From TrEMBL:
Stored Pfam families: HMGL-like
Residues annotated as domain Pyruvate carboxyltransferase: 6-273
Single annotated GO MF: lyase activity
Record InterPro entries: Aldolase_TIM (IPR013785), HMGL (IPR043594), PYR_CT (IPR000891)
The keyword Metal-binding is assigned to this record: yes
The protein, known as: Hydroxymethylglutaryl-CoA lyase
Length: 297
C-alpha cells in the first residue's frame, strides 16, 4: 500500500454518544471536543440536531455546538435531518451539516419516520438552505452493506441514494455499514461497482465494528483507493434504530494501523489518547477499543 494522506472524520461526539445510556453533561462534552481539537483531527462531528425525544443523549446540541472552542483548520460538523434541525445548527454556528437517509426502506422508516421517497424533498430543501447559508453539506447513506430489517441491500439502491445526495449538492457521501455486517469481499465488490460511477474523493467509509470486521474493511477500502474514513474515539457508539449495532471503528485503533502503514493523518496519537482517557472517565467504564484496553492492562 502506497503511503499517502488520509482524512479521519471523528464522529464520536455524535455517533458515539447518541446511543449511550449515560447522559454526558454538556460541559464534559465541550471539554472532550476541545481535547479532540487539540489532537490534530481536522474534522469533528460534534452533535446532532434531531428531535431530542428520539436522541435524548444529544438534547443539548445547541449548547454543545455553540460552547466549543474553534481551533483553526478544524471543521466542526453536525447531523441535521430537516430544515428545523438546520435552523438550530446554523444558530449554533457549525461549519458543515450532514444530511442522512438509508439505502433500505424499512431502516429509513424506523430511523427518520419517512419513506425514502418522502425523505428526498426534505433533504433537498435542507441542503439548498444550508448551501445558501454558505455551509458545506455532507450526506450519509445508511445500511449500505445490509439492513437489520430487510437483510441484503441491492447495490442499485445504494447507487440511487448516493446519486440523489450528490444531486442535492453534497460534497461527499459517507457509506455507512450501520450494523457492522460488511466483510472484506463485500466491501471490495460494492466499491468496485460504486467507483465506476463516483470518484473516490467524493466518498467516505463509515464502518461499525459489530462483528470485528471494520479494520479489515478499512484495509480493503484503502487498497481500492479510498482516503476518507469515519471513526469514533475508543469505539464509542451504535445506532439506536439498528438493533445490535455497536460502535464505530475506533479512531485510536485506526490511527495505529494507518501510522504503521506510513499514512499521514496529522493526528498526534498521544494527545488523542489523552482525549480518550478523558471521555472514558466520564463514561465510567472502560472504552471498547483495543488500544484503550492495551493501555489499561
Ligand atoms: P417526526 O416525528 O416524523 O417529525 O420525526 P415531524 O416532522 O412530523 O415533526 C414532529 C415534531 O418534531 C414537531 O414538533 C417538529 O417541530 C419536531 P411538534 O409540532 O410536535 O411540537 N421536529 C424537530 N425538533 C427538533 N429538531 C428537529 C426536528 N424536526 C422535527 N430536527 C425526525 C422526524 C427526523 C425529526 C425524527 O425521526 C428524528 O429526529 N430522527 C432522528 C433519528 C436519529 O437521530 N438516528 C440516528 C442518527 S442516523 C445514524 O446514526 C446513522 C449514521 O451514523 C450512518 C450509519 O452508521 O449508517 C449517520
Ligand atoms: Mg453510524
Amino acid at each position: 500500500l502506497e503511503a499517502k494522506p488520509i482524512k479521519i472524520k471523528e464522529v464520536g461526539p455524535r455517533d458515539g454518544l447518541q446511543n449511550e445510556a449515560t447522559f454526558v453533561p454538556t460541559q464534559d462534552k465541550i471539554a472532550w471536543i476541545n481535547a479532540l481539537s487539540r489532537s490534530g483531527l481536522a474534522y469533528i462531528e460534534v452533535t446532532s440536531f434531531v428531535h431530542p425525544k428520539w436522541i435524548p443523549a444529544l438534547a443539548d446540541a445547541v449548547e454543545v455546538a455553540a460552547g466549543i472552542e474553534r481551533a483553526p483548520g478544524v471543521t466542526y460538523a453536525a447531523l441535521v435531518p430537516n430544515e428545523k434541525g438546520l435552523e438550530r445548527a446554523l444558530a449554533a454556528g457549525v461549519h458543515e451539516v450532514s444530511i442522512f437517509l438509508s439505502a433500505s426502506e424499512t431502516h429509513n422508516l424506523k430511523n427518520i419516520n419517512k419513506t425514502r421517497t418522502e425523505t428526498y424533498p426534505i433533504l433537498a430543501e435542507t441542503a439548498k438552505a444550508a448551501l445558501a447559508a454558505g455551509k458545506t453539506v455532507r450526506g450519509y447513506v445508511s445500511t449500505v452493506f445490509g439492513c437489520p430489517y430487510e437483510g441484503v441491500v441491492p447495490v442499485d439502491d445504494v447507487i440511487r441514494v448516493t446519486e440523489a445526495l450528490l444531486e442535492m449538492g453534497v460534497a461527499e457521501v459517507s457509506l455507512g455499514d450501520t450494523i457492522g455486517v460488511a466483510h472484506p469481499r463485500q466491501v471490495q465488490e460494492v466499491l468496485e461497482v460504486l467507483l465506476r460511477r463516483f470518484p473516490a474523493d467524493r466518498l467516505a467509509m463509515h464502518f461499525h465494528d459489530t462483528r470485528g470486521m471494520a479494520m479489515a474493511n478499512v484495509l480493503v477500502s484503502l487498497d481500492m483507493g479510498m482516503t476518507t474514513f469515519d471513526s469514533s474515539l475508543g469505539g464509542l457508539g451504535g445506532c439506536p434504530y439498528a438493533p445490535g449495532a455497536s460502535g464505530n471503528i475506533a479512531t485510536d485503533d485506526l490511527l495505529y494501523m494507518l501510522h504503521g502503514l506510513g499514512m499521514q493523518t496529522g493526528i498526534d496519537a498521544e494527545k488523542l489518547q489523552a482525549a480518550a482517557r478523558f471521555i472514558q472517565e466520564k463514561m465510567g467504564r472502560p472504552l471498547g477499543s483495543h488500544s484503550m484496553q492495551a493501555c489499561q492492562s
